[in-house]
Amino acid sequence: MDPILDQTLSWKNAHAAVSPQSAAELAMLNDLQGNILKGHGRTYTSNLFVAFDKTKAQAARQFVASVGDDVNAALDQLLDAEAFRKSGVSGGTFIAFMLTAKGYDALGCTNAKPVDEAFEKGMKARDLGDSKFTEWESHFAAEIHAMILIGSANEGTRNTERDKMAARINATAGAATLLNPGFGEDGHVMKNDDDHGIEHFGYVDGISQPLALQEDIDEARKNAGGTFIWDPTIKLSQLLVPCPGGKLNVSFGSFFVFRKLEQDVRGFKTHEKNVSDSLTKKHKPSRDVDVGASVIGRFENGVPFALTPDEKGLAVDPPNNNFDFANDPNGLKCPFAGHIRKSNPRSDVDKSKSHLMARRGIPYGARSDNPNDEQLDNKPTGGVGLLFMAYQSDIAKQFEFAQQKWVNNPDFSEPGTGRDGVIGQPKGPSGQRWTVEWGEKLSDGGEDEQFSGFVTLKGGEYFFAPSITFLKSLK
């Protein structure tokens, strides 16, 4: 393994040239795309999906190279973020560029393609328990060759930069074609009253991340009071692989998974209330049942359900990620079907961190209500959701493993515990049981208390974020 990958990385030490390896680390950071090692931090985003005309490959390569000139390097992104924290001045527009396996082929760059079986076959051909791709939105059912991610601090700038990029695509005389001209994959950060990021069901999101940058690890340890119960540290090798088309010895890239997940908010919140009321009436526990905390694994304000049955007044900043499930071996606090336990089982599984990804998702879709207002009639039934995005070094070991072996497996991590209550597939009962008396009793697992079908896959694909020197070499 490359010694750069077999470690965590202090980007500040690399920038300050404090060790003999700093020069190589700095070169790597200047050639690596941003958003992989740390989220780009922009509030508004747009994902543009592109197909190339194989008969116009040279013109398509020139277009890709022109975008490569605009792509943000990891070092620039990190320096911009540091400057923003100190001065409040935005780092400007963020741009990243990804290719599918068929995208490499369409460009005539097959020899520059990274080797990964799942990447080569693409998401449509993989057994993930997903809906048929013929039921996906048309641009996802089509053959996708590339994706361009644009991020900006405000909506107006995002729209301007997005439209400019669309115009550049349209100016290629058909060498590149924009597949989603309706911009249905425009995203925006949503926040609650505590200024924490949330998803459309109203729960604080994006808390639990594996960390490969030493600065982030040190900050997480400080927030944990100096000691990790759950250590989020990973090596760079869990995110990066060599980029075959790169022009440096330290050219790396990362495999990227994109999935558009539509949320039936009204359906979920209505079912959440009905099941909570029903279980409270049936079991008469010492406190009213909050089934949503069981299904998600956290209260709406981000407090882990495994730590306390009472969310009132307990919200902290940042939300707590320093916990495991060692004190809950039978799932009587946070049920095994709870989303955060299914997707990140922590102490339930040996070496569970090896399957985690760097998630960079963002909500999409406009709504006029307050997600946390406890009303039901004003909640959307569609047109909103999550743009799931994640970087990793091995799609099968990370994303696909989590989907197949954890999320969609009704016998993980104990037999008969049901699928993930949020994103589990396929739709239908799976034996989920929810907490009715915290730490003491679960529900019966009846069909009327199952959570399923409130999140629908609208499409997705596997990509690779290549090195910047590769992109620029296509001129």
TrEMBL record:
Residues 410-433 are annotated as: Disordered. Its cofactor is heme b. The keyword Oxidoreductase applies. Pfam families: DyP_N, Dyp_perox_C. Coiled coil: none annotated. PROSITE patterns: DYP_PEROXIDASE. Keywords: Heme, Iron, Metal-binding, Oxidoreductase, Peroxidase, Signal. One of its GO terms (molecular function) is peroxidase activity. SUPFAM superfamilies: Dimeric alpha+beta barrel. GO terms for cellular component: cytosol. The keyword Transmembrane helix does not apply. Residues 32-172 form the DyP dimeric alpha+beta barrel domain. Residues 333-408 form the Dyp-type peroxidase C-terminal domain. Belongs to the DyP-type peroxidase family. This is Dyp-type peroxidase family.
